[in-house]
Amino acid sequence: MSSDGGLNPESDSFESQSQSRPVFYIGQHETNRPEPLTDDQYSLLLTTGFRFVTAPVTNQRFFQRVVDLYKAYLKEREEWARQDGLSAAQLQNPSLPGPVVPTLTDEDTSLYPSDYIGSLAVYLSPWIDLCSSDPHIASISRQVLNLEAAYANWCGARTLIIPGPRKDDDGRGIAQYARAIREALHSAGRANIVIHMPMYREPGLDETAETLSSIFGPENGTQEDAPKGIDIFTTWDSWNTIRSVCNYSMRLFVALRIPRRVPEKTLQERWFAEPLHYLTIGKDVFQPNRAGHPSLTKHHQALINRYMRLRSIPWIILCDVGPRPEELSFVADPMAVDFPSLAEATQALKEKRKPHMPAINAHVAYMKFLERQQPPYSAMETPALTSFQDWLQPPLQPLADNLESATYEVFEGDPVKYDQYEKAIAQAMTEWRELKKPTSALDPKDPSKPELVVAVAGAGRGPLVTRALRAAEATGTAIQIWALEKNQDAYVYLLRKNKVEWGNKVNLVRTDMRGWEGPRPRGSQNAITKVDVLITELLGSFGDNELSPECLDGIQKHMARPHGISIPHSYTAHLSPISTPRLYADIGSRLATDPNGFETPWVVRLFAIDYVAQKVPGRPRFQQAWEFAHPVPILRAERFAEEHGDISRYATGGVGSIAGASGSNEHNARHCHLTFVCPTRGVIHGLAGFFESVLYASQTGEGKEPVEISILPDQIDRKSKDMISWFPIFFPLKKPLYFPQDTELEVSMWRQTDDSKVWYEWLVEVYAWVGPKTRIKVGASELHSSRKVACLM
After folding, report:
1. Which of 148, 467, 549, 679 is deepest in the core (most CB within 10 A)?
2. Under 8 Å between Cβ of 212 and 137
């Protein structure tokens, strides 16, 4: 983030991952607080359990000065009409001088630079009305906003909270407000701006604080009767306009006011994806329990627990729950503090406080109770994994680059994946014997005992070799095993591992698997045989994005036909449109150094996102894009190479393929067109990609479940729970794409190749239903292409 420390939960100094569960960082806000707390008041407040406090920038005197200024301006306009003879039409001339708010004086504020200024959440004046239809009130409000923001920023405040719009149905007012916030981001160039917004406009909870509009034009402050039907997404619409006008600034956040009645899940998830800085909870949201203490409903508890799982944990502000400033103004008798009465000492000990000091606030005590009641961090919420939440990583290019040992080590730290691989290998070996399939090698010492030829292509540091040896031992299968690795440094490690752990049972070959000449059976070094079981771990976050199809094309000629087995047997790519403002803003901030950021498929552990599509009959939330299965029965490239030699299969002459190449890899191109249903309106920032793989499907016909792995959110717990080897892939959009309610998103994606590289192209279109059988196109993204950052073959 742009601002570190202070009240920035994104800073490295604010980390709670060393705890067993999220930590609640609780602050206090008083709506009618006229002045910042004194040092003594602040110290006393901390003893009641709060960790920070809000502070106004200006005081009541400044408010009265602004009111008097506008009164004087109105009187001056009357003088123009009476003395200068201006007509009513002339008074409406927008070029007439308007009111100008003079700069702040020392009598207008009690906020000054201090050691703890970074620990204050500065709350700007709630009486301004940036949305006012009166241009003069709107102008005064904007001037006050900039004066306060610039001064607080100069004092060293790092978090400025600005009250949000009070109505959502005034498009002009929301636009004015958004433009003013963008201006404030420039005025306070080092501070984070936090917009205080309700989760939705809850009936009966309209803000009643006095504003300039209600003072000078009561008709501007009155609210129309609330409609019978409540549109719970209007507040989010206003927020979306504000942050869009501000170009998704990385310094713009939300303080979300929790309502008395928790809304439906779709709205909760919509706000979950937004950059939450604070959760604010008013006194009226709490309900007394049987003992009379404040408490929250189960729905509120679930919502808070959900939001507290974010990597940047939002802080909690309790509003108007006390203690009030006057309650913090007493001065204890030093003698009474040092020598309390027995009753006072007993009560203080019971309340875990010092004698004659304020007791722990009841609302804070309850929130600390909720903190202890949270579910502890799961195996998928370790500090290392949490640090990867919504962190963009370019995808690996294992064919073009040699991976570091540390990268291999991360992959090897996932037992779930390798357990599934071992299960698949063991089942393949068992069924090979049950089905009495022929093998491709014999034991030279005992020709009556056939041996299974196993090859691990792309062995890395050897985890799959270990699992294959273990599966062979468990099933009593005699094997001859080859391990292929092109990385010279990893090959050295394999040599040592073969001596130390594998007892020299493994035939190691340093080569690109596509250039391997094939296995030479033990005792017959002049002959080349076939591979019975080929094992690879070439899958990427989208299944094929690390060029598994191209790699396997180059080695499958060595597989025994027709009974040779490939593990994995097949894999499918899946897509779902998502809203992820954080990732969009992150990519946008990188454009100066990475101009291809919005056309790069990023690997990212998606977390603060909203899946905008809903599951309906025939239209699931996660839809399959395409599939690859191995081995491929017929490959033109193999036949061409048999006739003309291996070198010619990589030649690129002619323009017969779709990408203008020779077409030898055209069979690995793919295309999909998917339709997603969105009942509620929203905005998407890109496509989330996932994969599933069948490692081995039983061939006995006994109805056994296939051995699978999956990173699909709705399937991973069933097929490969707690697997961490792959994060999803994210295909961003250059511009956020807004869609109205009851729309369909049409997603087109292509996997393209020109025989030397592979890339993706994607397009999203929005269609709205305007009749039972009529759709109209209401929006579309441009065609995106990752060709400039393509995967090299």
Report:
1. 148
2. yes
Q: How far apart are CA 636 and CA 755, in angstroms?
A: 13
Percent of the chain as helix, strand, coil, to the nearest 5: 35, 25, 45
Residue 52 main-chain phi, psi, to 5 deg: -155, 175
Q: Known catalytic residue: 422?
A: no
Residue 205 has pLDDT above 80, yes or no: no
> Between 574 and 704, where is the model more confident?
574
Angle (nearest 5°) at CA 469 between 467 and 473: 115
Distance CA 104, CA 671 (A): 62
Q: Burial-class residue 648 by CB neighbours within 10 Å (0-12, 13-18, 19+).
A: middle
- Over range 657-684, report the average pLDDT: 85
3-state secondary structure at position 708? strand
Q: What are phi and psi of 633, to 5 degrees?
A: -60, -40
604 compared with 203, residue with greater pLDDT: 604
Contacts of the segment 654-657: beta carbons below 8 A, 24+ positions apart = 657/753, 657/754, 657/755
Nearest residue to 111 (alpha-carbon basis) of 100, 125, 126, 127 = 125
Q: Is 519 exposed, middle or buried (0-12, 13-18, 19+ CB in 10 A)?
A: buried
The DSSP symbol for 526 reads: T
Provide the pLDDT for residue 413: 87
Q: What percent of the chain has pLDDT over 90?
A: 68
- Is 18 a residue whose pLDDT tops 50? no
CA distance 404 to 406: 5
Token code pair at residue 465: 């070799």
CA dihedral 374, 376, 377, 379 (to 10 degrees): -140
Instruction: Please tell me the predicted confidence (pLDDT) of residue 336.
Output: 54
pLDDT tens for 125-136 read 999 999 999 999
Contact between 334 and 22 (Cβ < 8 Å): no
CB 70 within 8 A of CB 136: yes
CA 578/CA 415 separation, integer angstroms: 30
Looking at residues 566-577, what average pLDDT do you find?
98
Per DSSP bridges, beta strands 565-567 and 533-536 are: parallel
Catalytic residue flag (residue 35): no
DSSP codes joined into one string, 242-289: HHHHTTT-TTEEEEEEPPSS---HHHHHHHHTS-EEEEEEEGGG-EE-
Residue written as token pair 């045989």: 529
**Nearest residue to 407 (alpha-carbon basis) of 729, 758, 725:** 725
- The pLDDT confidence band at residue 268, using thresholds 50, 70 and 90, is very high
d(CA 106, CA 103): 10
Query: Could you count the other beta carbons within 10 Å of the beta carbon of residue 597?
Result: 20
Six-digit token string for 601: 């498929």
> Nearest-5° angle of CA 733, CA 737, CA 740?
155
The answer to whether residue 417 scores a pLDDT higher than 80 is yes
Report the alpha-carbon distance of residue 604 to residue 601 in Å, rounded: 9
pLDDT of residue 635: 73
What's the sign of the alpha-carbon dihedral 294, 300, 303, 305?
positive
Catalytic residue among 30, 202, 431, 537: 537
Which of 274, 485, 546, 692 does the annotation list as catalytic? 546
Range of weakest confidence among 226-235, 410-419, 625-634: 226-235
> Angle at CA 221, nearest 5°, toward 216 and 227?
165
